[in-house]
Amino acid sequence: MITTKVVLIAWMLDLQSAGVLYFMPITVLPDEATCQKTLEDLKETHKRGYAYNLVIRGACLPANVGG
Fold first, then answer.
1. Would strands 2-14 and 54-66 be described as parallel, antiparallel, or unpaired?
2. What is the pLDDT of residues 1-53, one digit of tens each?
3. Distant-in-sequence, close-in-space partners of 8: CB < 8 Å, separation ≥ 6
4. What is the rounded distance in angstroms from the CA atom of residue 47 to the CA atom of residue 41?
5. Which of 13, 20, 33, 42 has CA 20 to 30 A from 53's CA?
6. Residue 16, helix vs strand vs coil
7. In Å, what is the CA distance from 3 to each residue of 34, 37, 64?
8. Nearest to 29 by CA among 60, 55, 50
9. For residues 8 and 57, what is the distance between their CA atoms, to the nearest angstrom?
């Protein structure tokens, strides 16, 4: 059975050099709302622990899981 899930793709961006420092592991989540909340939580947690020029960016994309 194929079910539609959402994948969270997130990365850390250095605003001074405009370069991507690294991609975070891709996470499969049950729906768009959970994905957006996870991304916002990740951004908020990151703000407290890193320099101002390093930010988290990301996207929630639909994905078919199963077969």
1. antiparallel
2. 667 899 999 998 888 887 888 888 899 999 999 999 999 999 988 877 777 77
3. 26, 27, 28, 29, 35, 38, 39, 58, 59, 60
4. 10
5. 33
6. coil
7. 16, 21, 6
8. 60
9. 10
